[in-house]
Amino acid sequence: MREVTEVLAAIESGDSKAAADLLPLVYDELRKLAAARLAGEKPGQTLQPTALVHEAFVRLVGGEHPQGWNGRGHFFAAAAEAMRRILVDRARQKKSAKHGGQRERMDLDAIDVAVGDWPEDLVALDEALTRLAAVDPKAAQLVHLRFFAGLPILEVAEVLGISPRTADRLWAYARAWLHDAVRGSDPS
């Protein structure tokens, strides 16, 4: 603890090397603090504790004007506040129209590409699948194997010579693409 206080005093006095000495001393505690902060966030948070620690650390120590801290406790309180501000800034950014804030997230597994009993739906799906084949032949082939042949994703991956994870991502993409195409919007 005393070493942290000494390094903080060195940073305050303008020692540029002291900031590099500080991170290893406080990293574990900052990481725990970041993990606790992120645990309280809504699901879907893409920021990881490590990234939050580094961004907060840069805000605290990386500025042109060194900040003064009255010891270790004050530094960690400032770190917690920096993390809170980072999370608030990210939340505001996500809500902005530029970053899709007006759009509603949908679970791709909930989207059903299956067609109804009407021939028009089958025709629309066929036309959409033809357009998908022109844009992404591998995705169209995956749809044929999954949707029409009924193969599980592991077998489809093997047939296409791709990893199961890649096949899963491609299946999600193709389903969303076809869903938009059948509904009349231009997915490409």
Write the layout of secondary structure elements.
Layout: H1 2-12, H2 18-39, H3 49-61, H4 72-95, H5 119-135, H6 137-148, H7 153-160, H8 164-183
General description of the model:
The chain is an all-alpha fold and 188 residues long. It has two domains: 2-99, Orthogonal Bundle (Rna Polymerase Sigma Factor, Chain: A), CATH 1.10.1740; 108-183, Orthogonal Bundle (Arc Repressor Mutant, subunit A), CATH 1.10.10. Helix content is 68%, strand content 0%. It contains eight helices and no strands. Helix 3 packs across helix 4. The radius of gyration is 25 Å and the shape is elongated. The model is unreliable at 114-119 (pLDDT under 50).
SSE order, one letter for each helix or strand: HHHHHHHH
Structural class, from helix and strand content?
mainly alpha
Low-confidence stretches: 114-119
N-to-C span: 57 Å
CATH architecture of the largest domain: Orthogonal Bundle
Give the strand tally. Answer: 0
Number of domains: 2
CATH top-level class of the largest domain:
Mainly Alpha
Provide the CATH topology of the largest domain: Rna Polymerase Sigma Factor, Chain: A
Short summary:
With 188 residues, the chain is an all-alpha fold. Helices cover 68% and strands 0% of the residues. It folds into two domains: 2-99, Rna Polymerase Sigma Factor, Chain: A; 108-183, Arc Repressor Mutant, subunit A (Orthogonal Bundle), CATH 1.10.10.
